[in-house]
Design brief:
By secondary structure, the chain is α/β, with parallel strands linked by helices. It is built from ten helices and ten strands. The strands form two sheets. A six-stranded mixed sheet has the order 6-7-8-3-9-10, sandwiched between helices. Strands 2-1-4-5 form a four-stranded antiparallel sheet, covered by helices on one side. The structure holds adenosine-5'-triphosphate. Adenosine-5'-triphosphate (ATP) binds next to strand 2 and helix 1.
Length: about 260
């Protein structure tokens, strides 16, 4: 059996008066692909934040890759944790090329004072090729479409050579074709690099077919977890979101059958 690489025990996180996590526990094994869904404010992003060593725990403890996160070791653990967020609005005048953005992923490994070597640039070019962006290497980052920007964000994350792959709504605001391209890419990277992946999404149609386990979150707690087939029933989803949900599930099934 694969080892546990994320172990969250009874985590409580609050932002002043808002309690984001209310004693949440979760274990994730190496090479698992876990989809995380739940309504707005359920605590999904906060969950990724504590795995990333950036969240402040009021109670509980979090172990990542065999080390309990402390205020002092978050920075070094973060080198092994890749993070891709939603598409951001980038100023088109930002004077940074795609290749330079991807190199940012290597700075944690390089340290501040070392200049990138030829080997570092080779890795950058290799991951840009992997995400299908070699042809846009020299373009300013702000001149890319949303789907292209997400490919660059994934390349930056891979340049870091992470063991954990955290994605927070990476397909939000992308069109259907770009969404399906990103989902396919994430699955391919997860499989080929033997990563452990946590994938947060709002859109059930964007839950990758690769998900071995789905975690349903509500009000700062895990409300249910299990295989997608068991868990993603109309009844469960309607309860989770407090609204009738069968239309969304139909959408998801359609998407899966298209990808199949
Ligand atoms: P969404 O689906 O809307 O992105 P989420 O499930 O990711 O939501 P979180 O972003 O983790 O949820 O937020 C959980 C709770 O914590 C919410 O009530 C939110 O308002 C609060 N919260 C999150 N970040 C902050 C912050 N920086 N300051 C204050 N409150 C915050």
């Amino acid at each position: 059996m694969k080892s546990t690489v994320i172990d969250i025990e009874n985590a409580v996180v609050s932002y002043r008066e808002d309690i984001a996590l209310r004693g949440l526990s979760l274990k994730v094994r190496s090479e698992e692909f876990v989809g995380i869904i739940g309504p707005n404010g359920a605590g999904k992003t906060t969950l990724l934040t504590i795995v990333n060593g950036l969240g402040k725990l009021l109670h509980g403890r979090v172990s990542v890759l065999g080390h309990y996160i402390t205020p002092g070791n978050g920075h070094s653990l973060r080198k092994q944790v890749g993070y891709v967020a939603q598409v951001q609005n980038i100023d088109p005048r930002m004077p940074i090329s795609v290749r330079e953005v991807v190199m940012i992923g290597r700075y944690g490994l390089l340290g501040l004072l070392r200049r990138p070597s030829r080997h570092d640039w080779e890795i950058v070019d290799e991951v840009l090729a992997l995400v299908g962006m070699s042809h846009l290497t020299w373009r300013p980052i702000g001149h890319l479409s949303g789907g292209e920007q997400q490919r660059v964000a994934i390349a930056r994350c891979l340049a870091q050579e992470p063991e954990l792959f955290l994605l927070d709504e990476p397909t939000a605001s992308l069109d259907w074709k770009a969404q399906s391209g990103i989902l396919e890419l994430v699955k391919q990277i997860h499989d080929s690099r033997h990563l452990t992946t946590l994938f947060v999404t709002h859109d059930l149609s964007c839950l990758p077919v690769a998900c071995g386990r789905v975690v349903l979150m509500k009000e700062g707690l895990i409300w249910g977890e299990g295989s997608p087939d068991e868990l993603l029933t109309d009844a469960n989803l309607s309860q989770l979101y407090d609204m009738p949900i069968s239309a969304v599930v139909r959408l998801r099934k359609q998407t899966i059958s298209v990808q199949d």
